[in-house]
User: Fold this.
Amino acid sequence: MSIAERMHQLGKQARDSARFLAQATTRQKNSALLAIAHTLRQQELQIMAANADDLANAKAAGLPEAMLDRLALDTQRFAAMLEGLMQVIELPDPIGEISQLRYRPSGIQVGQMRVPLGVVGIIYESRPNVTIEAAALCLKSANACILRGGSESIATNCALARAISTALAASDLPATAVQLVDTTDRTAVDLLVSMADYVDVIVPRGGKNLIARVSALAKVPVIKHLDGICHVYIHQEAELDMACKIVLNAKTQRYGVCNAMETLLIDQAIAADALACVVPALHDRGVELRGCALSRQLAPNIEKSATDEDWSTEYLAPILSIRIVDHLEAAMQHINTYGSHHTDAIITQNYAAARRFLQEVDSGSVMVNASTRFADGFEYGLGAEIGISTDKFHARGPVGLEGLTSLKWIVLGQGQVRGE
Amino acid sequence: MSIAERMHQLGKQARDSARFLAQATTRQKNSALLAIAHTLRQQELQIMAANADDLANAKAAGLPEAMLDRLALDTQRFAAMLEGLMQVIELPDPIGEISQLRYRPSGIQVGQMRVPLGVVGIIYESRPNVTIEAAALCLKSANACILRGGSESIATNCALARAISTALAASDLPATAVQLVDTTDRTAVDLLVSMADYVDVIVPRGGKNLIARVSALAKVPVIKHLDGICHVYIHQEAELDMACKIVLNAKTQRYGVCNAMETLLIDQAIAADALACVVPALHDRGVELRGCALSRQLAPNIEKSATDEDWSTEYLAPILSIRIVDHLEAAMQHINTYGSHHTDAIITQNYAAARRFLQEVDSGSVMVNASTRFADGFEYGLGAEIGISTDKFHARGPVGLEGLTSLKWIVLGQGQVRGE
Assistant:
């Protein structure tokens, strides 16, 4: 079978499964998820063996340490994967919920019912836990899914997918509700994102290159996550202790994550004091600082000058750019110009400034007096997230179960017809 | 200026206006809408003269009567246009609304704020009233818009756009918040739908060809409206009087509209009685019937046989296809296979059948005991609609102000940082 035929087959099977899944009860979906957890536990040894194969190949191919780390499963991570599944079981079922049912003057009742999107295609890097997480979120939201993990994790993913299929085959849900693209050929991705008849939405989880490629080729809507160029702005009425604590957390709690701060903006009225506080603390943690001219005048130990390129760079590393701004307005303009509409925070005790920042900063998450690191499905109470969207269409910010659903209108009448 | 330069200019101006509009107060937006209504009234004579020119050209070009009718403005239609504007003023302002603000275990408060999408591109046929309706809905939802009406209405639209600009220039909102593409060159459309930097969503309102062309070229999300192949299904436990009344209304109240019924499905258990009731009534109104073999056996006065093509045809005319189905399941399968996911209704007194139909029919609007003609923004209480979506992504069914908005996350803290 050619790749095109195989993808067509996966698509058709997913579409058929989706019709069935949409009618599944909460109990059926939860039982299937539980069965998947059991089967994974039973097949832990085989899955670990497959992962060891993947790791050996990846090492032989000279993959960087960070990628090997993401690829590796161990007992603890395996347990965390199962724990994640159990958490999805406990999430409320969004499907079928009817909202805003109200009478209209014509006598009809109009409301909206939450329904699945249908078939979700997920393209991700070599992180085996995403296979389970994505499958669980899709099943719970009654969507069929087609998963395409990174090629380095193919053996692990095939082992995981076998366990899922085995569990589904013994459940009330179709075995093809979750399918893995079982080839590492890249044309499979190109086909997946263009099968508009079979796929309702594509969620690319991965680096910029992947997302750019998917966006360019997609004939299907994409829940896009571009850069995470997040800002913290220390307003002139910030409490400095709080500001310093949040700045440290936003930059240094983890470096390689999209909701870490990449640029610190400081109001000129408070700049000297703020720099005196944050610069040594950031240096203590080994963060390289790149400042605007004024910031380097005020804090000569800022080691580098920031260029225009720095303002639009997602470092994902212990590097931070710093800019002194004249006022709130200038801070917001910087964020809306150079940011990536991901997550931005203001530190202030001023009510009006907080209110304007919330309203005028055009990002998926806008925060007052909190670390940008909170921008995450779990922290927001979504249970888990399928991705973080930097788009405005359909879903913004962390996307949980609800982002995988849609609302259809329902009308309840008793014989009403429309007049002229 | 080349067309590309002109479109680029419109896009840039729209983007700049959108930033400003997003911060406008409800009062500023309503005042601007009121000012537009006043200016339109003042310039009624000039607008009517421009419309007369358009009509003369269209007649000379031999446009069909139906298109001339859509193009023509008269005193009554002009008044209706202004009345529509006043109705949009009275709609609640969706922007800035904060929902579901709740505390999380970390101590942060998380909620969602409704914000505009940004810049909306609307491409429509030669119906001048859409110019005003679209502009009003976009302004009220704080979106800048770029309007591209049919080429036959260019003089009317330019006159309307002049009135809008005049009113906006004297208001608190930017004069470029509403802009008209002032060329009839078709490449303008191709440019408009591919300016992803400047345009956030495209709403094509028009025939299949337009929508197909826009979808093929678009680099921007599209709120698509494909066919309106709507069904009424007479279940075996339908009240026949009600069924007949709804069938007549859904088919004959207006023919050229997307929410008119195109196929009637009848449960075989009730087929003879139902046909005896609806066939003469439909014939009385001059509707041509095309039936399946069984229906023609039961009602030999059904004049034509329906082919497979009929099941997927949107007649928009006094033609109806009729099919006898074995049971509810078969009806739903027919609808999900041949329908266009627009609007479908069941007529029944059976609770379980109604419930299953609501749940399992995969359409933007699903109805029980009501005419499909109700699928409309006004009837649903949205005030007005910018379009009807047959997609699932972002918006389904009639799209009102809310469909032109998005939700961003807001986080209110008091110094919270994220722990490991």
Notes: Residues 287 and 348 of chain B are 24 Å apart (CA to CA).
